[in-house]
Write a structure and sequence with these properties.
Layout: E1 8-12, E2 17-18, H1 19-31, E3 35-40, E4 45-50, E5 53-59, E6 62-63, E7 74-77, H2 82-87, H3 95-100, E8 105-108, H4 112-117, E9 125-127, H5 133-138, E10 142-144, E11 149-151, E12 154-157, H6 163-184
Helix pairs in contact: 1-6
């Protein structure tokens, strides 16, 4: 049995997500047996970016206004500057509910802006793109310049070059949560 068989992972994005920060973690999750769903406030498709240039489109599986944290086991927050900056303006962004429920969250690059918006940054060590350092400090977090940081239920990384370490840590943290919830059942 795969370590993440049937684990349901929401991937919260809108236009401007960094393409590799969605595609590579999603591929790793799918290979581990997880069921991934792109959640977005946009219609049927969202468009990624590659280092500031427009990239490919990805289909939306669940509209943000229909998404509920209870329908998922974990959350992935890809970065890209435009993506989380636009998402944090949506009051329906479900990030806070994941933290409130103690579910694991993986955020990379600018994705930790959503952790700040959810009120879940305070007291945490968080790796993120360097321009988020002041925002994280102002939110009560410690910005860390490391390829991956695991702080409780949060996995975070700085940039696309960190994806191999990010993916390993994300898969391990999501698998730990799966084992924990199955033992409790």
């Amino acid at each position: 049995m795969d370590s993440l068989a049937n684990v349901r992972v929401a991937i919260l994005v809108t236009d401007g997500f960094e393409q590799s920060e969605l595609s590579e973690p999603r591929s790793a999750l799918d290979k581990a047996g997880a069921v991934t769903s792109v959640v977005s406030p946009k219609g049927e498709r969202v468009r990624g970016s590659r280092h500031g240039e427009w990239g490919s489109e990805v289909g939306v599986d669940v509209a943000l206004d229909r998404a509920q944290a209870r329908d998922f086991d974990a959350l992935l927050l890809p970065g890209g500057v435009m993506n989380p900056d636009a998402l944090r303006m949506h009051p329906r962004a479900v990030v806070k509910a994941f933290f409130d429920a103690g579910k694991p969250v993986a955020a990379i690059c600018h994705g930790p802006w959503m952790v700040i918006e959810a009120g879940a940054a305070s007291g945490r060590r968080i790796a993120a793109w360097p321009s988020l350092q002041t925002d994280l400090l102002n939110a009560g977090a410690e910005w860390v310049d490391e390829e991956v940081v695991v702080d409780g239920n949060l996995v975070s990384s700085r940039k696309p070059a960190d994806l191999p370490a990010f993916n390993r840590a994300m898969l391990e943290r999501f698998a730990q949560e799966r084992r924990r919830t199955h033992q409790a059942a």
